[in-house]
Amino acid sequence: MFKRIKNKYIRYIAIAIYFLIVLVCAIQLNFLGLFGYSPTKKDITMPSVNISTELYTADSVLIGRYFDEDRNPVAFDSISKNVINALVATEDVRFYKHSGVDFLGLGSGIVSTLSGDRRGASTITQQLAKNLYRTRYNKSGGLLGKIPGVGLIVTKFKEWMTAYKLESRYEKNEIITMYLNTVSFSNNSYGIQTAARRYFSKNASELSINEAAVLVGMLKGTTIYNPMRNLDKSRERRNVVLTQMEKAKYIDQTQVDQLSKEPLVLRTENKDIHAGEDSYLRAAVERWLEKWADENDMDIYKDGLKIYTTINSKLQKHAEEAVAKQMQVLQRRLKNAWGSEEPWRDLSGKVIPGFIENLVKKTDYYKFLVKKYDQRTDSIDFYLNRKKEMEVFSWKGERMREKVEMSTVDSIKYYVTMLNTGVMSMDPYSAEIKVWVGGIDHQFFKYDHVNQSKRQAGSTFKPFVYLAALESGMTPCDQIQDKPVTIKIDKGDSIEVWEPKNADWNFSYRDMSLRWAMARSVNSITVQLTEKVGADKIVEAAHRVGIESKLSPVASIGLGPNDVSVFEMVNGYATMMNHGERVTPILVSRIEDYDGKVIATFKPERKQVVDKQDAWLMTYMLRGGMEEPGGTSQALWEYDLFDKENEIGGKTGTSSEYVDGWYMGVTKDLVTAVWVGCDDRNIHFKNSQTGEGSKTALPIFGLFMESVYKDKQLGYTQGKFPAPTVEITKKYKCETPRPPREEVVSDSTAVDDEMLIDGLEDVQNGGTTQEEGLSTSGDDDASDVLSTNNDAAAIRPRDSLGFGD
């Protein structure tokens, strides 16, 4: 058909145009899979960009981010003019004069390259096409992309086509804004806003000429010109950009001379930068939203959401400070208790043979050495014991980090003796979680001790026994004698006997009211109540108010042999504070999309599960720990907590051998749980004077509440518990006789290790206490080995056989 065109030059032009049209169509349609993916009209109209999700407290403090690429897009008018000028001058000086492809610049670039001065000829629009649609990735290449040279030509042609599409769809300012919002600035910083915060702790709109020149200069090579890694080269590149800006008439030579002499000063300590780092709270919210995200086809790592938690930033800070202050004291105490002795002991007090060796064998590093050296023990032992510099968690180090010389074996010994904690505080009426401290440091100890960890509750479980007793018809004034108790267990072919002991190993033989007995945490009376009410009723009551873990209905249930979480215990106590209405704790209040539209809100489920009278009576009994003679909460008098007739209730708890220390504290506004212990249950304190809950966990609660009351801006005031909302028909005002001499009551019952009850093995072996295996993410990261699962590290035999308060 081209023969009809008589003029050969016009004919050649027509043929070229024809084949160009065919080529464009073939590329666009990916004919026979030869050309690979090309952006469609829909892709151009709605370009997809991964945007980081931001995590906020209830009072709008940024506390975390989720991202594959840390990006926070901003509008054109939120970008400093200095950045725009620097970018155009350096990357595409004719940006405002071409339509996506600058053939004049392309020709100039070819000439410069041939003369030895290599410089790119891609326009900003072409670079945007490459960044947005990944035109140079393997999946975009097609079959022709596998042919050397041909693939590059096809890819370049597709970039030209895409650039023209972008130019026809968007204004110049929109294109340059998209480019600056998508380009990488190294250090996992994508987009100009994130880069401005990362390197200079300011917004993109506030960048100076020099700062803009530094960031634009990085685009030539984000590694070689990274100011955090190569300050001198970054400064040299900055000065090149300044020169280009002068050539483009954006600044004059005087400014270049002055600015190029200035030092390059980075400011990288902005709190927003570190908000992207992992934390217990960030990880907890991710787990919390896993089902919601799946059901709503959302990806919190890419969709640019704003997630608002119920956490109060000031309360959270007070809790973290209380933890840091007390845990330093406790860590020194534990170290001093054992001195040079090895602390990993069995129930008889003997050192557990091969304890450290077994932990070493569970590390990835050990498995790597075994494979590399074909199980040659001499080589393996050499590397396991070779000292090297490493960074470890340390209370005395800067930002709790310290560089030390340790071997792999040394680091495991160091971390296995590290005490950890879990703290949660919640408004029992709104169900909003106000504080979440999952441990001492998430970087070193990943396992969350609020809702992932489960430990023996000790005597903090006793209130559920007393709740079941009230529900059976008893009153706080009913009396039971503190006396020896003998429990006979029929095992079919034999009868076994358990005789539980009190904390001080003595019995007073007094008739004690239920309130007084719970306040003093008397084991003998708790066991008698369990026998009277029935262990199955106690299990039912505990499950009803918020304990979701499996509970074995054994005679010792009130002494806390079952493993439960801090989260569950807060929920259970909150039900009693909330007039018997159980609420599902809420960690996230609402979620907004990138445009600020609320796309999800979260409200607690509510269900009346306890009679209002019995619930109020339980809060009254919890106050007994402070008000009754010898109550186990009375160490709180050491703190400034009791102005204006303030009322505080609570319950201490300590498991056998002082492995777990607990304190459950309730005020008129908050329910707070604190757990303290080592992740490995074989490491613990020696005696009640150092290791009981009133000495380990209670001080954290005391320090926390003291700081909360002193912070007047928070609005948490001292005062009395709410009055009952129903008529109280049961007798509860009964005066406790004051003994002539006030005894010091231990909160730890090292209950008789001869307690053998059929079914207790189920408590130890079933559900949460079985070993789940250890893992490590690196050579010497023993903290990961020991914190992957707090129950994973060598569960002690018969660990559930001794409990107490």
From TrEMBL:
UniProt-annotated location(s): Cell membrane
Pfam families xrefs: Transgly, Transpeptidase
Reaction it catalyzes: [GlcNAc-(1->4)-Mur2Ac(oyl-L-Ala-gamma-D-Glu-L-Lys-D-Ala-D-Ala)](n)-di-trans,octa-cis-undecaprenyl diphosphate + beta-D-GlcNAc-(1->4)-Mur2Ac(oyl-L-Ala-gamma-D-Glu-L-Lys-D-Ala-D-Ala)-di-trans,octa-cis-undecaprenyl diphosphate = [GlcNAc-(1->4)-Mur2Ac(oyl-L-Ala-gamma-D-Glu-L-Lys-D-Ala-D-Ala)](n+1)-di-trans,octa-cis-undecaprenyl diphosphate + di-trans,octa-cis-undecaprenyl diphosphate + H(+); Preferential cleavage: (Ac)2-L-Lys-D-Ala-|-D-Ala. Also transpeptidation of peptidyl-alanyl moieties that are N-acyl substituents of D-alanine
Residues covered by region (Disordered): 757-805
Stretches assigned to the Glycosyl transferase family domain: 64-246
Keyword RNA-binding: no
Transmembrane segments: 12-37
Location (main, coarse): membrane
Amino acid composition bias (Polar residues), ranges on this chain: 765-777
Key words, A-Z: Carboxypeptidase, Cell membrane, Cell shape, Cell wall biogenesis/degradation, Glycosyltransferase, Hydrolase, Membrane, Multifunctional enzyme, Peptidoglycan synthesis, Protease, Transferase, Transmembrane, Transmembrane helix
InterPro entries in the cross-refs: Beta-lactam/transpept-like, Glyco_trans_51, Glycosyltr_51/Transpeptidase, Lysozyme-like_dom_sf, PBP_transglycosylase, PCN-bd_Tpept
Coiled coil: none
Pathway stated in the Swiss-Prot or TrEMBL entry: Cell wall biogenesis; peptidoglycan biosynthesis
PANTHER family the record matches: BINDING PROTEIN TRANSPEPTIDASE, PUTATIVE-RELATED (PTHR32282), PENICILLIN-BINDING PROTEIN 1B (PTHR32282:SF11)
Family of this protein: In the C-terminal section; belongs to the transpeptidase family. In the N-terminal section; belongs to the glycosyltransferase 51 family.
Name of this chain's protein: Penicillin-binding protein 1A
Protein's organism: Sphingobacterium anhuiense
Lineage: Bacteria, Pseudomonadati, Bacteroidota, Sphingobacteriia, Sphingobacteriales
